[in-house]
Amino acid sequence: MTITTIDPTAALIVIDLQQGIAGAPTIHPSHEVAARGGELAAAFRERDLPVVLVSVSGVAPGRTDQGGGTTRTFGADFADLLPEVNQQPGDHTLTKYRWGAFEGTDLLNTLHDLGVTQVVVVGISTSAGVESTARSAHGHGFHVTIATDAVTDTNASAHENSLTAIFPRMAETGTVAEIINALPR
Questions:
Q1: 20 to 30 Å CA-CA from 179: which of 70, 99, 119, 151?
Q2: Cβ neighbourhood burial of 87 (10 Å; 0-12, 13-18, 19+)
Q3: 154 contacts: CB under 8 Å, gap ≥ 6
Q4: Are residues 177 and 6 in contact, defined by beta-carbon separation less than 8 angstroms?
Q5: How far is CA 135 from CA 32, 57, 87, 160, 168, in A?
Q6: Domain named Isochorismatase-like: which ranges (predicted)?
Q7: Low-confidence residues of the chain: pLDDT under 50
Q8: Of 94, 155, 102, nearest to 124 (Cα)?
Q9: Span 10-57+82-182: which CATH code?
């Protein structure tokens, strides 16, 4: 469903726009996605709407076909947010150790404490962190919006599947410009 409205109690959730992820070969350049995410964050801040900056600094335990699990190590600057996000003192930050930002974090309580009814989600990777967070937000009863030009993935077909098959079933979608135009004044 295309974007219809943004609630006056919306929050922006920025997923994994960080140094350790930005070097991955994504279908849309990470720094361009981060710049659009930063533009959206600035618009939320300008309207005194919450901005939640999420970085990943670990992986869930367990075996997978692609390896990983608890044996993966991360460099010292891996979780550092990209400068395009322009982190501000009033932003809410959290570190996650799973794909989704709700798993094993205090995100749900934070959003409830802030009176949030809608989340706008941007970041990397469309089919993992963004989709997992959007699914959980939808399951927790939030209105969900995805900024389609502020997400990217390392896998083009997974990215396209999320945008065309998954998100329309649980979220409204729109560009950063469309979302900014729909933000309450």
A1: 99
A2: middle
A3: 24, 25, 26, 27, 125
A4: no
A5: 25, 21, 25, 16, 11
A6: 10-178
A7: none
A8: 155
A9: 3.40.50.850
